[in-house]
Specification:
The protein is 28% helix and 29% strand. By secondary structure, it is of the alpha+beta class. The longest helix has 17 residues.
Length: 354
Amino acid sequence: MTEPLAPGSTIGILGGGQLGRMLAVAAARLGLHCHIFEPGPAPPAAEVARDLTTAAYDDAQALRRFGESVDVITYEFENVPAEALDLLEGCAPIRPGRAALAVSQDRLEEKTYLAGLGLAVAPHAPVDSLEDLEAARERLGPGILKTRRMGYDGKGQVRLGPSDPSFPAIEALQGAPAIYEAMVPFDCEISVIAARGIAGETVCFDPGQNLHRDGILHQTRVPAAVSKSVAQDAVFAAARILSALEYVGVLGVEIFVAGSKVIVNEIAPRVHNSGHWTIEACVIDQFQQHIRAIAGWPLGDGTRHSNALMTNLIGEEADAWHELAKSGGLHLYGKAEARPGRKMGHLTRLTPKE
Ligand code: AMP
């Protein structure tokens, strides 16, 4: 086992959005510094971190300088280019490791991997042509055509009912390799935020129930309205994935619940929007847990002490900050411009634990 990073060490974070920001705040609480690498201007994470590199992910010199200035490298989004990681690998340990990134970057590889672990996934087929899509629709019925790579918040997806034509759907993906998934008739969507430490110990937060609006997470409610056995199966699925990947850090596992069945939709090798409620409702939250894990520290107590409802503030919703501040744990991400669909902050309300 490698030595834990002492306070005063530096964590490199690829990506400077709100997840990076909340990671940097958590790191600061443990006396650790952060260095943010982000191509875009005015990254929210840089306001609370010691160092910032503004450069593209193909800027080898900037990447090397960044890599050599930090003690461990982590990321707040899963689409980090493989070439950037090739370069960084020699500089400092990358946690979570590259296997998790490779699996989560490609929806087809992800489903194949998860099914190989004995976990249920949506029936699916790879689609590279109109013929593939027609054959997949014939076999799987109504479903969703998704790009294999780079999709998030419902982007790069086309829903296809029985009477929808295939051609415009294929055309919309502009030749990107795709996957067709059968529509899962789920009762609800839940997610498990789970962590694995460097010595292999795991800690799972209670599953949260997720409600989406326009393809974007709207609310997470904890506890989820599922049976004890479904909650347990969901936690087991997350733990199975963590140990199979020899994972270090926090992982988000998105799950469809259909009756008593737990179907894994996708994994995110990072802290997750549906885990923000842990900041107010748990002794140690997902951000602390991730920093502890990647720094080689003991994991903390993820026990939930309250029920929670987390609501994302999208676009102009955050303009009501003055009112919202009266009603719960308000988080604003410091983004200057409230574009439609942009996550500007979130609010967590607690109630006594059932
Ligand atoms: P994803 O980008 O895969 O997380 O999909 C975004 C949202 O679309 C999910 O949270 C679900 O609400 C819905 N969705 C995605 N895939 C399926 C599926 N196979 N069956 C039913 N709903 C789905």
